[in-house]
């Protein structure tokens, strides 16, 4: 559960906030943050619009106020509160301040717990994108490399588990680098008719979304790696995984991708490793296993 990490967030960030700035509201909210005074931080953020602060400073004041409230929530959860008891407050922080990334991350956890995988994917992706915005998320507020990789993996896992396609093109889903952290592989929920290499209607939508991403990122070459669930023989699954990767390759070329595409079939040999396998039934686990990974060179 994420909240094990959230308690650490409070202690790591509390001593790292910058001590000075030209904007008085910024100075005040940093002092409130370091004192753990969420009410004072909120009051300062409410009046920052009338202060002598730039637009970015006003936004950052709100982010720090949001983080101050978030730290209070994380401390309460570490002390035994349920995260879902704070859902309304987290949603209010999102609406009021548009972040910070820790709020999106927690909302992703809540959506995942109620099995709303589509919403969870969007929240984790928003956390990843927000945490990578170096203007609104300065280094002292940013996720570290391991957490960036975690957020990307969770966003991908939720896309695979969602009953409907979740667009990669939403916000930063197509990106392969966040704060200098390179993410080579993206798992795509391209779905096929059972036992065949033919797209379902949802599969066509996911393939189209991947095509749009490739047009945006423009990699010189990619490798498509097909995977199946363990249903059926290993030999048949190997052939099926390769055939499905080949179908996607043909689609991407026809859609205008001009780079080089290699295909690999892994069959059932490399099942997806979810963050918490116990959260899924067998059918959903098999849905996670059935995927095509895109390795961006």
TrEMBL record:
It is found in: Cell outer membrane. It holds the Pfam family OmpA. Residues 179-297 form the OmpA-like domain. Keywords: Cell outer membrane, Membrane, Signal. CDD domains: OmpA_C-like. Residues 1-21 form the signal peptide. GO terms for cellular component: cell outer membrane. InterPro entries: Bact_OuterMem_StrucFunc (IPR050330), OMP_bac (IPR006664), OmpA-like (IPR006665), OmpA-like_sf (IPR036737). PANTHER family: LIPOPROTEIN YIAD-RELATED (PTHR30329:SF21), STATOR ELEMENT OF FLAGELLAR MOTOR COMPLEX (PTHR30329). This is OmpA family protein.
């Amino acid at each position: 559960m994420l909240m094990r990490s959230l308690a650490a967030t409070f202690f790591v960030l509390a001593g790292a906030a910058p001590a000075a700035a030209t904007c008085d509201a910024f100075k005040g909210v940093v002092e409130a943050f370091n004192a753990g005074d969420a009410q004072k931080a909120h009051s300062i953020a409410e009046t920052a619009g009338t202060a002598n602060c730039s637009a970015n400073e006003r936004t950052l004041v709100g982010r720090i106020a949001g983080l101050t409230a978030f730290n209070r929530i994380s401390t309460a959860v570490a002390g035994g509160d349920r995260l879902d008891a704070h859902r309304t407050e987290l949603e209010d922080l999102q609406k009021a301040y548009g972040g910070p990334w820790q709020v999106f991350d927690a909302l992703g956890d809540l959506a995942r717990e109620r099995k709303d995988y589509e919403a969870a994917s969007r929240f984790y992706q928003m956390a990843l994108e927000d945490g990578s915005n170096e203007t609104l998320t300065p280094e002292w507020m940013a996720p570290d490399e391991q957490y960036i990789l975690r957020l990307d993996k969770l966003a991908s896992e939720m896309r695979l588990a969602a009953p409907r396609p979740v667009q990669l093109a939403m916000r930063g889903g197509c990106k392969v680098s966040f704060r200098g952290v390179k993410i080579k592989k993206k798992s795509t929920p391209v779905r096929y008719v059972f036992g065949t290499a033919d797209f379902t209607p949802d599969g066509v939508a996911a393939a189209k979304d991947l095509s749009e991403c490739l047009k945006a990122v423009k990699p010189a070459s990619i490798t498509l790696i097909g995977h199946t669930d363990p249903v059926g023989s290993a030999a048949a699954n190997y052939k099926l995984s390769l055939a499905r990767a080949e179908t996607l390759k043909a689609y991407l070329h026809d859609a205008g991708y001009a780079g080089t595409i290699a295909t690999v079939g892994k069959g059932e040999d490399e099942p997806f490793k979810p963050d918490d396998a116990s959260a899924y039934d067998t059918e959903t686990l098999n849905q996670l296993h059935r995927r095509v990974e895109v390795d961006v060179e």
